[in-house]
Amino acid sequence: MSRLNETHNYKGTLVCVEGIDGSGKSTQLALLRDWLKSIGQDVIYTEWNSSELISQTTKLAKKKNMLSPRTFSLLHAVDFADRLKQVIAPALKAGFIVLADRYAYTAFARDVARGVDPNWVREVYSFAIKPDIAIYFDIAPIDAMDRICSNRAPKFYEAGMDLKLSNDPYESYIIFQGRVTKEYQKMVKEFGLTKLDAKDSIHSKQVAIRKMLKEVLEEKGVTLNDKI
Amino acid sequence: MTKYKTKHGYEGLLIVIEGTDGSGKSTQLELLKKSIQAQSYGVMVSEWKTSRLIANVIDDAKERNLLNATTFSLLYAADFADRLENQIIPALKSGFIVLLDRYYYTALARDVARGQDIEWVKNLYDYAPEPDLVFYLDMPVDVLLKRIIGTTGLDYYESGRDVGFSTDFYKSFEIYQKKCLDQYNNMKSEYNFLSIDGTKSIKDIHNIMNAEVQKILDSGVLY
């Protein structure tokens, strides 16, 4: 029933990147965006929890640590639905390449790691449009922690401290992000995510992503003018 | 008398008053609360869209007409989840009688009237405990329309204007409220609504509700 299993018919192309913080997905998306713009493509970028409608509320509630897993899940769904209807869908209809830093799969990974029922959260997001390309950057939590926590401790929700897995934020982070990673890995098959090794070089990952995008665009009859 | 068993397994009782806008829910809730309080039971009241977390966001978004049907559904679902997990379930666990002005049936009626898939909406609320009693204040649409216009007046979302049924305010309101009533009618048997004729006097309605609640209380469920 879910639209996440049906190819969309819009003119545009939807690319999303997934993975835990520190997996390098935002870097890759930024490189892709700059390149696409430089060759004159119409690009729109959207990131997780950024809608005008709700993101401030969610951030505030997170600061106060007052969210239950289900409320947490629903607030992010509000944010996603708002961006999908106001930003993503219109841009796809107009023929844009839409770059999404995190997509519904983030909810499936994080919320399920928090104990939310996997089928329930999939049904909540069943209105989501299936991306043309969904890339998952696979990284071991310990390596991700090395990257993001070199000068700060893991944040409360990022470490899954709401689940009371451990009083030590570092230990809690490893357990919680381990669960998130496990969910991502299951989704590689379930949703056909393309898995990239986060430890590969920035260059080789960017080459792989551009190649995938070119192939998808060519199927849609768009040839990128990247010889400039 | 055999002791009544709660439908949700918690110590307390969950009692809901449902009905469309202007059906007299709040008045009845207040009366019921007083009569239960008078018998020394612990009572807690919770109203639709009052979570400390999200209620303001909904009001603000409505004011600026920012909501589409999906965000409308999800925001109310988030409000509900917050109240359920932080107020309602803790109160039930500790043995309170929880009186609710609207429950997720309201969301089902409104969201489906806005064109959402009913199964999708049901899934949003599928974790909610089953109430011990659901009173439904049944009102014919013409009486209802007059009541709302005579009290709060026509509101943008309560008239379903966001869905674009009609550019005429009254027409849109009528279509939307009728659609909601249709949904409530469909739910009556599915969710065991105890349907009460909303055109009866305030006192008559209260007596009916009170008698039903009293039956459960007399079984000694809260002793």
What does this structure look like?
The complex is a heterodimer of chains A (228) and B (223). Chain A has 228 residues and is an alpha/beta fold. Chain A contains 8 helices and 5 strands, in the order βαβααβααβααβα. A 5-stranded parallel β-sheet of chain A has the order 2-3-1-4-5, sandwiched between helices. With 223 residues, chain B is of the alpha/beta class. Chain B has a domain of 153 residues: Rossmann fold (3-Layer(aba) Sandwich), CATH 3.40.50. Chain B has 8 helices and 5 strands, in the order E-H-E-H-H-E-H-H-E-H-H-E-H. Chain B has a 5-stranded parallel β-sheet, sandwiched between helices. The model of chain B has no long low-confidence stretch (mean pLDDT 91). The chains are: A alpha/beta (228), B alpha/beta (223). The interface between A and B is medium-sized, with 25 and 23 residues.
Salient structural properties:
heterodimer, A: 228 residues, 5-stranded parallel beta sheet, 50% helix, B: alpha/beta, Rossmann fold
List the helices and strands and how they pair.
The complex is a heterodimer of chains A (about 230) and B (about 220).
Chain A: E1 13-18, H1 25-38, E2 43-47, H2 55-63, H3 69-93, E3 97-101, H4 104-113, H5 118-124, E4 133-138, H6 141-148, H7 169-190, E5 194-197, H8 202-219
Parallel strand pairs in A: 1-3, 1-4, 2-3, 4-5
Helix pairs in contact in A: 1-8, 4-7
Chain B: E1 13-18, H1 25-37, E2 43-47, H2 55-63, H3 69-93, E3 97-101, H4 104-113, H5 118-124, E4 133-138, H6 141-150, H7 169-190, E5 194-197, H8 202-218
Parallel strand pairs in B: 1-3, 1-4, 2-3, 4-5
Helix pairs in contact in B: 1-8, 4-7
